[in-house]
Amino acid sequence: MMIPVTYGYARVSKSDRDDRNLETQLRELRNHGVRGELIFSDVVTGRLMSRPGWDGLMARVQPNDTIVVVWLDRFSRNFDEGVRIQADLTNRNIGIVAIKEGIDTTDNGAAAKYFRRMMLTNGAYQADSTSERIKVGQERAKAEGRPPGRPPALSPDLVNECKRMFAENPSVSRVARIMKVSWSTANKAIFDESSAQVGMQ
Question: What's the rounded Cα separation, in Å, for the pair 3 and 173?
C-alpha cells in the first residue's frame, strides 16, 4: 500500500495582486508543512492554456494523496475549470486543502463532507451547462454559415476513446497521459457531451 503524499501547488498570473506573488505562496505552503521538492508551480500570463507545473503534478498525484494551495482559486484560471478540477480530484479521492479559506477535504467533519458533495454536484452541473452553451454556439454558427468554433484538438473517434477510458478508470490525468494531450484537453473531451454526439453520428 502506497503512503499518501502531500503536494503543494502555486500559481501566479499577470492579473494577480502583489500579495499573491509566487514567493508568498511558496512560503505559505512550506509553513503549512509541504516539503519544497513536492511543490509544483506555474507562472501563467494572459490566457495561456499550458501549465507545465500543474501537468507535472497531475502525472504524479495518486488516490489518497493531498494537494495544498494557498487559495482555492489557484487550481484554475476560471470558475468552470476550477469546479471541474476540484470535482475530478474529489472523485479520485485526492484531498484538497486551501489554507486561507480553511478548507480541508481530508477531514471527516460535516463541513468537509459537505464540500466534497458540493464539488461533485457542481462538477456535474458545470459539465451540463458547458454542453448546453456549446450547443447554442454551434447552432448559431450553423445558422450564420460558418464553422462552429476552433478545430478540435482530438478527432471524434479519439474523444470517444477518452470517454471510454475515463469510464473504466475515472482519472483525467491517466487519460491525458495515454492520449499524450494536456490535462485540460482530456478534461474537455471527457465532459463535453456534444463531442460524443458528433463522434456517434
Answer: 20
